[in-house]
Specification:
28 strands, 18 helices, 7-stranded mixed beta sheet
């Protein structure tokens, strides 16, 4: 008997949506005009689908009045606000490409993204937490070759909306009629082993269908209300969150600009949310609130947990104490829009915590031997590859990086080590790529290394991830200083704080004279990690993370 191979395809009786994001939103608004579409607690904002669709129309006209054309890049640099969501759909309506900018970015990262994607219009908050966005924009603006206009939400938004008066309904209809569902609509930057972020370019077809089929697996209807505390700049927020809702008629609920466990549970209670999203660390923070028991969460039935594996005890508490008995685990990557596998409602607890579910509808997954490229037998480890409608168009202006991960047969090589069991469930056991995942954020060690190389005291540096109970992994830097030079850790941290995002700053530092290397001179990061775990006393945490 021939052994069963690690290949599966998502057979579905429901066809893919062959329409643009704008067309889909119009159809939903026509079906449920008076239902809540979007609620933002902190901004005291609430809009029905009819009102929300009209607001996206106004913003679309305003952008067109500013000479934004189909294919032009529009940047958004802001935390979770209602304007972010309106802009997401408005850019889609005129065929502009929305460029998501991480709210935690600093000047050097902002400059790179604006120039690499050639953003012509940037819409930004003035500040967020300790970040002065306006000051950073002013710092880089003269070096941004294509940036023509900056609109600040708290200062310019109302005047920006008035620009719509110059554009007629017929003009907007004419623009929308020329947009195809395979056109690019979004660029999201993701860290990679090459160091610099790569601009994942995604189409209407990619994003709309992924949101729609995630919603179907969650059994969303127009009666669902989804609490979205995860960031919009990431696929988790804008696809699993927003597009999942608008394609099914559910309501989007924004609890706060950034994650706050107390405000999240307040929003669930106040808005009678039926679904709640988060990475495992978010659910842990909510469950650990001293006054957790006072919140009425009985309206919840489902939700999405993604970003990192969920400890079994946390899953049990989420299902019992938070009433999310139909919670779903999702796995994927930005390059696949993002979800490739997802647990079905009713999946046994064991499969919920030890696997990332089964292949999503209309997609294909195979596990291959990284050395030979051959499909493995069931139960054997290998690299997980995804093919289908969800695979990105390309990395923006980076054909070399694109061909490195997207093969001639259309398979996206994820770099993740996976195992497929006889039932088709997928387990992710590690990463071929040298990526650190901290609290759901993908961090490129190479990017941090290249930045630290710019410090005058450093001659060499290697960055690794070490296990962490709260975030899954934390960043650690092994630093080799120039001869005769000494520097305090506090000085290195201060150097990082003004230049790179907080989550990329190493928590642990180790000064060394050399690094462990192979016979051929390649740095052995596996050995560095083992040494660090022992020296930091993280053996028990490491056991938990690998059990």
């Amino acid at each position: 008997m021939i052994a069963k191979l690690s290949y599966v395809n998502g057979v579905s009786s429901t066809p893919l949506l062959g329409e643009t994001i704008g067309q889909n939103l119009k159809a939903t608004a026509a079906r449920f005009p008076h239902n809540d579409a979007l609620v933002c607690i902190t901004q005291n904002y609430r809009a029905s689908y009819k009102e929300f669709e009209r607001q996206t129309e106004t913003v679309a006209k305003s952008l067109f009045a500013l000479q934004v054309k189909t294919g032009d890049r529009v940047g958004i640099w802001a935390p979770n606000r209602y304007e972010w969501v309106v802009l997401q759909y408005a850019t889609a309506r005129i065929g502009a490409i929305l460029v998501n900018i991480n709210p935690a970015y600093r000047s050097s990262e902002l400059l790179f993204v604006l120039n690499q994607s050639e953003v012509s219009v940037l819409i930004s908050a003035l500040t967020y937490k300790t970040s002065d966005y306006k000051a950073m924009i002013e710092d880089v603006r003269e070096r941004c070759t294509e940036l023509k206009k900056v609109i600040y939400l708290d200062r310019d938004w109302d005047n920006f909306l008035k620009e719509a008066d110059a554009i007629s309904n017929d003009e907007l209809i004419a623009i929308e009629s020329k947009i195809q569902f395979d056109d690019p609509v979004n660029i999201q930057y993701t860290s990679g082993t090459t160091g610099f972020p790569k601009g994942v370019t995604l189409s209407h077809h990619n994003l709309l269908n992924n949101g729609y089929f995630i919603g179907r697996r969650l059994k969303y209807t127009e009666n669902d209300r989804v609490c979205i505390p995860v960031p919009f700049y990431h696929c988790f927020g804008m696809v699993i969150g927003n597009l999942c809702c608008t394609s099914t008629g559910a309501c989007m609920v924004i609890p706060a600009e950034g994650f706050d466990p107390q405000l999240t549970l307040q929003a669930v209670e106040k808005e009678h949310c039926t679904s709640l999203y988060g990475v495992p660390t978010m659910f842990i923070a909510e469950l650990q609130l001293p006054d957790f028991a006072k919140y009425d969460l009985t309206s919840l039935r489902t939700g999405v947990m993604a970003g990192s594996p969920c400890p079994v005890e946390v899953m049990k508490q989420v299902q019992s104490k938070m009433y999310m008995r139909e919670v779903s685990i999702c796995y994927g990557m930005t390059e696949t829009s993002p979800v490739s596998t997802q647990t079905q409602i009713g999946t046994p607890l064991e499969k919920q915590v030890s696997t990332v579910g089964t292949v999503q509808d209309h997609l294909e997954i195979k596990i291959i031997d990284p050395e030979t490229g051959f499909v493995t037998k069931r139960g054997a480890t290998g690299e997980l590859c995804t093919r289908g409608y969800s695979v990105m168009l390309k990395y923006w202006n980076n054909p070399q990086a694109t061909t490195a991960v997207l093969d001639e047969a259309g398979w996206m090589h994820t770099g993740d080590i996976g195992i497929m069991d006889d039932e088709g469930y997928i387990n992710i056991s590690g990463r071929i790529k040298d990526i650190i995942i901290r609290g759901g954020e993908n961090i490129s060690p190479r990017e941090i290394e290249e930045f630290l190389y710019t410090h005058e005291a450093i001659i060499d540096v290697q960055v690794i991830g070490v296990p962490d109970e709260r975030f899954g992994e934390e960043v650690m830097a092994w630093v080799k200083l120039k001869p005769g030079v000494s520097i305090a850790i506090e000085e290195l941290q201060a150097f990082c704080e003004t230049q790179i995002a907080h989550y990329k700053i190493p928590k642990f530092w180790k000064f060394v004279d050399s690094f462990p290397v192979t016979i051929t001179g390649k740095v052995r990061k596996v050995e560095m990690r083992e040494i660090s775990i022992k020296e930091l006393g993280l053996e028990e945490v490491a056991k938990i993370k690998t059990s």
